[in-house]
Write a structure and sequence with these properties.
The protein has 12 helices and 13 strands. The chain is α/β, with parallel strands linked by helices. It folds into 2 domains: about 170 residues, Rossmann fold; about 140 residues, Hypothetical Protein Tm841, Chain: A,domain 3 (2-Layer Sandwich). Keywords: Lipid-binding.
């Protein structure tokens, strides 16, 4: 059976990984002060987006995911002929309409696919499973990377489904902005008062950064750290600790709001890389989704791993 994998551009994975595993991306369109950007996980375009964002400072952004009709068209025109089964894993539904759009599209796809496949002499049924990953950005990348790994190992559909369900409960993502200006600006535009003026002013003056956790379908503030570099060190040390304890899945994902070369030069990342190698864990580093960037600004860092132990940041 030819098994395909579809996700949206909130998913933080390197382009070479996406290409190698034939992972199909549902693009997200970003409307900003300087025009329109379509996020298709293109590394050069994404890095350029972050350079422009850093230069212009705080700005207004709106994001628009693929509609149900666009998803339906993608499947019926292409994917139902390329694959016999597709797993579609979306960003957590509490943060986006992509899951709802994909679910709505799936009903139409499964109703209309048969004549198209029969015309191409494909008589086997087409199967489509849509999952809310319960994750976002680096943690969504983790879930998708794990499904890709299982597909490459010829795992059964049942085995893949069970692993997705387990990861929905154990994948933990952590996101830290470099600058609070964009975070507060977007939060106010959306009516989110979690980043108030006083905490913003104090945070900016004292270089205190919030750490946001994505876990089991929700994003919540986890902690505050004093200084960006110190915060990155704590997050990477936390991942190392869980690698040494033993992970649910042999994958750790890291993303950065800009050129990932900035991260590879960090001593904390070098320690993480060494720990991953020692424990046979694949470490995936890439540009952060622009959907994350428009909400937290350029220069942010995200990391994700799956562990039975709920992580605590001291």
């Amino acid at each position: 059976m030819r098994i395909g994998l579809v996700t949206d551009s909130c998913c933080d994975l390197p382009r070479d990984f996406l290409n190698r595993h034939r992972i199909v991306i549902l693009p997200i369109t970003i409307q900003g002060n300087d025009g329109t950007f379509i996020d298709q996980r293109d590394p050069a375009a994404t890095r350029d987006f972050y350079r422009r964002q850093a230069a212009q400072g705080v700005a207004d952004f709106e994001s628009q995911p693929y509609s149900a009709e666009q998803i339906k068209e993608l499947f019926l025109s292409k994917l139902i002929l390329e694959f016999d089964m597709v797993f579609c894993l979306t960003v957590m539904k509490s943060r986006s309409q992509i899951y709802n759009h994909a679910t709505q599209a799936a009903r139409a796809i499964l109703t209309e696919y048969r004549p198209i496949r029969e015309q191409a002499n494909m008589m086997k049924p087409f199967v489509l499973r849509v999952f809310d990953s319960g994750s976002i950005f680096a943690s969504q990348g983790l879930v998708v990377a794990e499904v890709a790994r299982l597909i490459s190992q010829d795992a059964t559909c049942s085995e893949i489904t069970k692993h997705i369900e387990r990861l929905a409960n154990t994948a933990q993502g952590f996101l830290m902005p470099a600058n609070l200006g964009q975070l507060r600006h977007q939060a106010r535009r959306k009516g989110d008062k979690s980043v108030g003026f006083l905490s913003y002013a104090l945070g900016s003056a004292l270089d205190i950064k919030p750490v946001i956790r994505a876990f089991q379908g929700e994003t919540t503030p986890l902690s505050r750290v004093n200084g960006f570099a110190a915060g990155v060190d704590k997050l990477f040390s936390l991942a190392i600790e869980h690698i040494q304890r033993g992970l649910v899945a042999p994958t750790v994902c890291v993303s950065y709001g800009g050129d990932p070369a900035v991260v590879t030069d960090m001593l904390a990342y070098q320690r993480l890389k060494q720990a991953a190698k020692q424990h046979n864990v694949q470490l995936l580093l890439c540009e952060m989704s622009t959907t994350a960037g428009v909400n937290i600004g350029a220069g942010g860092v995200a990391i994700a791993f799956a562990s039975e132990t709920v992580a605590v940041l001291d």
